[in-house]
């Protein structure tokens, strides 16, 4: 399987380059890596302060790693933070985030790229978030005796690490200093491969993140006026497949107001949402619209990144998108932390927090349009059920806090950032 990995690392940039004239994300991926190592060299040649490097594949993984980064900046104010992303959706949305001293794309994995990046940046500690396994980077960091932590890691039995032909991928695991895992099932899978002393079940740092977001959530006067104390369903991170299930209920229940936050906010996707939902308007247009125009609106289409996690505070019901796609649902706990009943489609089994939300009574999964309408109608009519589900959802999130402090304590106890 080693050859397959090497083939992937060579073909991926080529394919991205070939489709970049027709695909905006591919174009951003390609453009962001032009002269990238030279940018690293110039940026870091005069740096005299110790560096912590955190790598996240995309936006979701960044949010997962952010609580750790924030605590490290407090505990080690003399250190500077390098943040890298693999995908444009992470880099483009967080390239100016104040937590990081530098934000870059990650150069594609190769022996030369790994050697030069580590030579230029000289990190004292490296955090890879959730799923990141890059052979040359891991091997080079190991050779330089730089500690590497996998944080909020998740493993499943169908991954290549656990296949008969997965020896190459299992070898990557030996380069990590320690694994901080979300659940015991992941630990059980790893234990036959790596020493138990290098494994901790710390939980998911996303719970710490959403608790922080909820505690500091700002108010949105435009949303408050839009809701006007009417039932409000917020559908977050939706795909076309979700809209096909939702829009019948939206049409047949004009007394219910909606906020739709599509997973992608490209022009074509936003226009599709406007077609799906009656009396809808883009949020950016709504905030500047006249009162007469606002009175005609029943649905807001969110056309920016970053506010959805705070908007859930206004929901009567939260619907989480992705469950009617093969990829599966998106972040359920952003809504759950506000004490909102959560509903999503049938593809959720890969996400432990969604499974636990159902088990504890904080969420419902629906498989058809009919089931969705039954769920929504029941929750809208029965306030007691709504409150009970919301309380169960919030209690689950609060019970999962603490992963960030667990990881920080390990770093401090092992003196990983103390010379």
Describe what you observe in this structure.
The chain has 419 residues and is an alpha/beta fold. It has 2 domains: 214 residues, Rossmann fold; 181 residues, Glycogen Phosphorylase B (Rossmann fold, 3-Layer(aba) Sandwich). Helix content is 48%, strand content 16%. It has 21 helices and 14 strands. It has a 7-stranded parallel sheet with strand order 3-2-1-4-5-6-7, with helices on both faces. Strand 12, helix 17 and strand 13 form a beta-alpha-beta unit. Helix 6 crosses helix 7. The radius of gyration is 23 Å and the shape is globular.
Q: Which labels suit this protein?
A:
2 domains; alpha/beta; 419 residues; Rossmann fold
Secondary-structure map with pairings?
Elements: H1 2-19, H2 24-31, H3 36-44, E1 51-56, H4 59-75, E2 80-85, H5 88-94, E3 102-105, H6 111-121, E4 123-129, H7 135-143, E5 148-153, H8 167-173, E6 178-181, H9 184-190, E7 199-201, H10 205-215, H11 221-227, E8 232-238, H12 240-252, E9 257-262, H13 267-276, E10 280-282, H14 283-286, H15 291-295, E11 299-301, H16 308-311, E12 317-320, H17 333-336, E13 342-344, H18 352-359, E14 363-365, H19 369-381, H20 383-399, H21 403-413
Helix pairs in contact: 1-2, 3-6, 4-5, 4-10, 4-21, 6-7, 12-13
């Amino acid at each position: 399987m080693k050859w397959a990995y090497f083939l992937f690392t060579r073909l991926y940039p080529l394919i991205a380059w070939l489709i970049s004239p027709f695909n905006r994300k591919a174009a951003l991926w390609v453009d962001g890596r032009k002269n990238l190592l030279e940018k690293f060299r110039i940026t870091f040649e005069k740096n005299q302060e110790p560096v912590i490097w955190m790598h996240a594949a995309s936006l979701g993984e960044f949010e997962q790693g952010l609580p750790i980064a924030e605590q490290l900046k407090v505990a080690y104010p003399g250190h500077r933070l390098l943040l890298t992303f693999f995908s444009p959706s992470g880099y483009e949305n967080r390239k100016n985030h104040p937590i990081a001293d530098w934000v870059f794309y990650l150069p594609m994995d190769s022996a030369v790229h790994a050697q030069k990046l580590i030579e230029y940046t000289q990190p004292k500690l490296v955090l890879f978030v959730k799923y990141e396994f890059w052979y040359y980077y891991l091997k080079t960091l190991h050779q330089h005796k730089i500690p590497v932590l996998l944080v909020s890691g998740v493993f499943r039995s169908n991954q290549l690490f656990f296949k008969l032909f997965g020896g190459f991928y299992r070898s990557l695991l030996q380069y990590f200093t320690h694994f901080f895992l979300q659940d015991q099932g992941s630990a059980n899978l790893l234990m036959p491969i790596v020493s138990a002393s290098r494994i901790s079940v710390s939980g998911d740092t996303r719970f710490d993140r959403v608790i922080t977001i909820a505690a500091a959530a700002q108010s949105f006067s435009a949303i408050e006026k839009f809701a006007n104390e009417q039932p409000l369903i917020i559908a977050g991170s939706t795909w076309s497949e979700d809209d096909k299930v939702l829009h019948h209920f939206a049409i047949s229940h004009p007394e219910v107001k909606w906020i739709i936050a599509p997973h992608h906010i490209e022009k074509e996707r936003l226009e599709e949402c406007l077609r799906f939902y009656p009396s809808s308007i883009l949020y950016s247009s709504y905030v500047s619209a006249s009162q007469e125009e606002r009175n005609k609106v029943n649905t807001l289409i969110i056309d920016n990144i970053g506010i959805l996690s705070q908007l859930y505070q206004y929901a009567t019901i939260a619907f989480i998108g992705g469950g009617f796609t093969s990829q599966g649902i998106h972040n359920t706990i952003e809504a759950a932390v506000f004490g909102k009943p959560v509903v999503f489609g049938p593809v959720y089994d890969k996400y432990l927090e969604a499974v636990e939300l159902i088990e504890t009574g904080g969420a419902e999964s629906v498989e058809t349009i009919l089931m969705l309408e039954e769920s929504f109608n029941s929750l809208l009519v029965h306030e007691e059920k709504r409150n009970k589900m919301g309380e169960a959802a919030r209690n689950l999130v609060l019970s999962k806090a603490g992963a960030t402090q667990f990881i920080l304590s390990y770093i401090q106890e092992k003196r990983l950032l103390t010379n």
